[in-house]
Amino acid sequence: MIELGKTQTLEVIRQTPNGVYLNAIIDKSNEDILLPKNQVSECLKIGDDIEVFVYKDSEDRIIATVQKPKITLGELAVLKVVDTTSIGAFLDWGLEKDLLLPFKEQEGEVKKGGDYLVALYIDKSNRLCATMKVYNLLSNRSPYKNNDRVHGIIYSINSQYGLFVAVDNRYHGLILDKEVYGSYAIGDKVEARIKKVRTDGKLELSVRNAAYAEIEGDAQKILDLMKSRGGKLPLNDSSSPEQVKAELNMSKKAFKRAVGRLMKEGAVKITVDGIETLYN
């Protein structure tokens, strides 16, 4: 049986001026499919087996190709947007005909030139299309443990939960909203630390290092900002987490740790109005 969207080994059934026609080796389909002439090697003959990918051409005909697509059914891949149109975006998937990502299958703003994690599916019209709705296709059986460093891509953003990340393009990952510092967009690639492996196998991530490794960087960030403001900063223990994040793009907990380090080193003092440097 010939399967749309998959790489498979088919048999050469007949030869024509347009190329060769193929069919399954067993459980043959009702119709043979064409492998175009420009992809047929001179040594290929009737009865031979050949590995091909099956898709639909620009005229919506099922066709075979010896080209290797960047994604097949059942897989996830990061693909580049080559164009955006009134019906959706078109992705480069390594074949002559670009792959459609319909509007209804998009997450957030999709931009030309952007890279996005997608899966391949067959729509109601029996055509191959891409979807960014990949949550249910990700695995929760990763090989990682707490504090491992991982790479992933943001595939969805939720204002309540945070940034959904596909670790290695295949495992469930989440950067909780309280761990999000800075601006991120769908399609952004991130390097993160595994903060926690949940009991269900999903990964809670942080784009910050472990606390002991962050203190030096946070302390320097505070000193640099104070220097640019005449040695003062209107933040202290009574400042809200929102105020701290707005000024320094860090959590209040991280701020207090860093200020504690600076006080221990005699670099700053706490005042009613905030903190001040003790030396220039």
Q: What this model shows, in words?
A:
- The structure is a single chain.
- The protein is mostly beta strands and 280 residues long.
- The protein folds into 4 domains: 7-65, OB fold (Dihydrolipoamide Acetyltransferase, E2P) (Beta Barrel); 76-135, Nucleic acid-binding proteins (OB fold (Dihydrolipoamide Acetyltransferase, E2P)), CATH 2.40.50; 138-206, Nucleic acid-binding proteins (OB fold (Dihydrolipoamide Acetyltransferase, E2P)), CATH 2.40.50; 211-277, Winged helix-like DNA-binding domain superfamily/Winged helix DNA-binding domain (Arc Repressor Mutant, subunit A, Orthogonal Bundle), CATH 1.10.10.10.
- It has helices at residues 211-228, 241-248, 252-264, and strands at residues 7-16, 19-24, 33-36, 49-56, 62-65, 76-85, 88-92, 99-102, 115-122, 128-131, 149-158, 162-167, 171-176, 189-197, 203-206, 232-233, 268-270, 275-277.
- It has a 5-stranded antiparallel β-sheet, with no helix packed on it. It has a 5-stranded antiparallel β-sheet with strand order 8-7-6-9-10, with no helix packed on it.
- Helix 1 (211-228) packs across helix 3 (252-264).
- It is elongated, with a radius of gyration of 27 Å.
